[in-house]
Amino acid sequence: MKGIRTLLLMFLIVVIAATPLTLAGVFAHYGGHAFFIVPAIVLNRHIPETDGAVSYERNPFQNFPEAIYLFYLSFPLGVVADGMLSYLSYKNAKLYRFSTWKRGVILLAIFLSFCIMNLEAALSNLFGQDFAFMWQGVGFPYDADWLHYFIGIVAYVVFPLFLGIKKGGFDLEKSLTVSAGTYAGSILANVFIFDYLQGMLTENFWWVFMAGLPIFITAVVALGWRRRPWIEME
User: What pLDDT, on a 0 to 100 scale, did the predictor assign at position 100?
Assistant: First the structure.
């Protein structure tokens, strides 16, 4: 498969895959936090109540107040989870960057899309809500619109350009096509599922961590599974 047909296929694949990949990424992000939060819940012997809202002004772990320290220590782990998934997806995408087979092209598109998606999530959470306690202390405008736009440019423009121009990297047209499809698909996913998902995450705040932990572990195992380069498979 060559030329415009290959690029069109890659674009459509990542647009279609954007919603399930977004859901997997969101739950895996919470799964990263869960490595400390789930033990905190276990020590508390009771799932804290949220009443549809999450408050950081009171200790939610009433049965074991010291568990709050595990909760605080979990803040960076969501970014770590995003970064791990982005890196592992990148390593998988590299195996298929020279493939001309349809299956190889599809896998390249999906892995590279998940890489870009999680890179954007890692940057957004690093300079956003996960580290808000730190940015507020130094007066950094972590919630400014310009910062969100800048992160989007880095993830969806600068990064795929870098992949396309570096020596031994990806085909520039394929890299930019996947990035464009990922961005378009992410917008559609946000339009159709974001409002519902945000409400569900807030109402079931603590349960999301427990659901996210096995999803994150499964994603890491699946992406970390050793694969032979595509050229050997052909």
Answer: 80
